[in-house]
Amino acid sequence: MPKFTLTDLVALPNTLVKMPRLGFGVYQSPPETCIQSVLTALKAGYRHIDTAQYYTNEREVGEAVRRSGIPREEIFVTTKIIRTTENPDRAYETAVKSVEKIGLGYVDLFLIHTPGRGKGARKVTWGALERLVEEGKARSIGVSNYGIGHIEEMKGYAKIWPPHVNQIELHPWCQQREITTYCRTNNIAIQAYCPLVRNYKAKDPTLLALADKYERTTAQILIRYCLQKEWVPLPKSDNEGRIYENANIFGFEIEDGDMGVLDGLDQGARGAVVMAVINR
Ligand SMILES: NC(=O)c1ccc[n+]([C@@H]2O[C@H](COP(=O)([O-])OP(=O)(O)OC[C@H]3O[C@@H](n4cnc5c(N)ncnc54)[C@H](OP(=O)(O)O)[C@@H]3O)[C@@H](O)[C@H]2O)c1
């Protein structure tokens, strides 16, 4: 039996919160398309949606969840604050605005999108997210694109440490081994963004050979690779067929030797399509 199922949950550290092992990304899903894409994803069995202030579709994600008729507590919704700031009121207000736009009462996970504007702003913005947890507006909080230095620095100011999640770019060409090892050691759940490398590697011969061997698509191999690395992948698609295809990854297992072959494709920071973290 292959490991993992579509309904698997990952427990977040020091909380009662459980996060579905497969997520659905909505970056570059235009508002007019996003509702339908999320509805399709929910129909296909995804229960974890990843939006952000930056994506300008928080409202549509909330709308789709409401329209789906699926009980709120069965769906895990993440958003992210884009601008860190040293102004506590501004940080808190912009975060609350996101929760209100989504309109589901609370979010399951609120992330700081990037380490951005220096330590002072990171500290104040984290304080605002901690306040959301205290007030029940966010069930868990975390960071994105944070390196080891950023997370270590938090020990000096955080009431909630470790952050529950670090969302970073991860796929065979950008494995970020230092930060993933650090997160694992410190019990921080790892989410993988750009798990499909935006389809830029669809013609890569190694990937094509594995797709051929397992009789799967290159996208399915890449998402399955994330699962077997114990990363939570967030594939994005606005296409019905591809949304289903990307969730159909639980019926096979990549052999250890082939995981090693994919591991061998790592190019470090050079392999990133968005960014690799800065660890120190
Ligand atoms: N925290 C951050 O800084 C950060 C940065 C980037 C992304 N993210 C999150 O991670 C999610 C995923 O990353 P991403 O959207 O940048 O890239 P991705 O999921 O690696 O790739 C999405 C692209 O691949 C295409 N695609 C999807 N399924 C496919 C398939 N089965 N076959 C061929 N092509 C396929 C999509 O086109 P179609 O839509 O036409 O299918 C889209 O162009 C985002 O949506 C967002 O939620 C976070």
UniProtKB/TrEMBL annotation:
Sites where the protein binds substrate: H113
Domain NADP-dependent oxidoreductase positions: 28-265
Domain of life: Eukaryota
Sites annotated Lowers pKa of active site Tyr: K80
Protein's recorded name: NADP-dependent oxidoreductase domain-containing protein
Residue numbers annotated as active site: Y55
Coiled coil (residue ranges): none
Residues making up the signal peptide according to the UniProt record: none
Provenance organism: Glutinoglossum americanum
